[in-house]
Amino acid sequence: xxxxxxxxxxxxxxxxxxxxxxxxxxxxxxxxxxxxxxYIQLDKWGRGIPEGATKPLGAWGALKLIIxxxxxxxxxxxLEVIILDVAFQRRTFRRRKxxxxxxxLIFWGWIGLFILTVVAAAAEFYGPFVLGAEYEFFVGVWKSxxxxxxxxxYMLVAGIAIAIIRRLFFRSKDVQARNADVDWILIIxxxxxxxxxxYAQGIRxxxxxxxxxxxxxxxxxxxxxxxxxxxxxxxxxxxxxxxxLPFSKYLHIITAPxxxxxxxxGE
Amino acid sequence: xxxxxxxxNTVNFNAAQLMEFDACTRCGECVKYCPTYDARDKxxxxxxxxxxxxxxxxMNRSFGLKARLFGPDKIPPEEIKKFTDDLxxxxxxxxxxxxxxxxINTIELWESTRANLVKHGTGPYGKQSLFPKLIExxxxxxxxxxxxxxxxxxxxIKIADKSDIAYFIGCTAGYNQQVLGVSTARILNKLNVPxxxxxxxxxxxxxxxxxxxxxxxxxxxxxxxxxxxxALKAKGAKRVIFACAGCFRAAKIDWPRAYGKALPFExxxxxxxxxxxxxxxxxxxxxxxxxxxxYHDPCHxxxxxxxxxxxxxxxxxxxxxxxxxxxxxxxxxxxCGAGGGVKAGIPDLAMGVAKGRVNDAKETGAEALISxxxxxxRNLLDGRDELKLDMSVDDLVVLTANxxxxxxxxxxxxxxxxxxxxxxxxxxQTIPPKPVEPKKEAPKTEAPKAETPKAETPKIEKK
Lengths: 267, 463
Known about the structure:
The structure holds two protein chains of two kinds. By secondary structure, chain A is mainly alpha-helical.
């Protein structure tokens, strides 16, 4: 075992306690799959030939059209829609309070954890590469993110719990779509992310991340180091929440807000 | 091996619309409000959501990842035909878009999908295929003569040759609902508002073609829009009044697109004009009517354009009238069932939806159901008759004219004239029964095909 991963002569501290190489490779694969998936979707949308046009716009033309439509009523109006209809999900709030709560919890829980993960990953590189800091810098950032991480994690759990309860006990309230059972793939997938995530966090906290010196791992390797569940959590989360997104019902996380923005709030 | 060609294509969609198919979260909110889904015994095939998901599936099977890697799936023609028929079982009322949490613009989506399917060869539905020929050749969908555009005029009505205010009468009021034409004209005369009309120069607004996805056929609606706009402009119109919600919607939304720029005049609905005149103190009520009425928001005036309060303002100001609201009103109103080409193409569906709306009105205990669209009026009258209810169905303009002390009588109706020719609320006239025609021998030649407009004569309805 090493203290961390040596990249360009700098040590990136392995304080997330997984094999960083697996994490980085999985992340790169996931991001590539995500981008390819999104490109395929954009290319599909870009095949549209509206009345009067002679050829399709193509993927980049579609992206350009979507962006220009979002801002065609001005930045102020676009911001209003982004805040009220995307962030606050006003249209859902007006009609479906329980579903709104579920969506807000899952949406913000997911977004929050995603942002914190990016911040933590950035801190890992920012410390040694920019500040020339030792591992304490990352540990400090990591500890400061603990509370928001827990809050977003619990939000996600609560949202998923509502989703499950709705589907089990309030199913008759809504008319079900054909093949609605496919929703369970997403719910169970998110549940796996959350359960393994809490487990990973639990064993990190129990070991006391701030007290453990990575250099001591070889003598006294903590139980979480390269723990198979922790590793599974990281890999599964990347594949399920990033790579799988453009190919699944999850796509609506991107397309529904874009549609609201393109249609200026849907009014 | 050469890859197979996709079974569908993407013409008539823009990129944002194709994205919208992927934005449906399948929540089913639209299903709760869809009037045609209700009228079709809650058939899943009719759900707006199901239509979106089916086209999404067609798209993915034709252009998705698997299609890119291994070639498109073949979609059986009967599956596309079934989808087309289900898609036309829709009045394009837009309720689904109003309640959609993802804000999908369903009205435009249905119209684009219909246009795509017409080009594909599976649309439109039934008699709707007669619209292009009728409107292109006769400038109206009723097989009437252009010279009869103002045939409803009575000697007391004054129409100016030139004026900055125009009344765009529309085919339905001009030919079939003369009571609406005479009432509008008499109100304007009484208010000393000089107005002109295009008469023979007025062409169909094109709504029926656009709603049924046939706008591209000879570009008829575009030509009609440009013709109407230019004709109104040439006569100096600064404000154009529409008493038909369908024509008004076309003028507000479809005409500027066809014209390529903003219209050179203001388009205003008669209910807005009346509200304006009321506010200016120009309307003097001369009669009172002790009735409880309820107001039906036409989709084309309300949800499509956003006029909700002006008609209510006028009704509330009427002496003796008590306005009660239906449970579903304003943005959440239930469609009358006539729009989207349904009245012409699928009359039983139009009737089913109309009965739903008339029952909404019945629940309020209202004695009269008032609307601001001749097409809603016609279909709601049919629904009322089918349900055999003792409830009047009429237009706000007719009610206004009567309470302003004006006659709503039309020229003596011809025997067998449609019931909507005269006022339903103020029955001062009767329609003589149609004389029984002697039985003709059946023609020996083969019956003409449905595509031949002359075979289908007058019962064509538009919207």
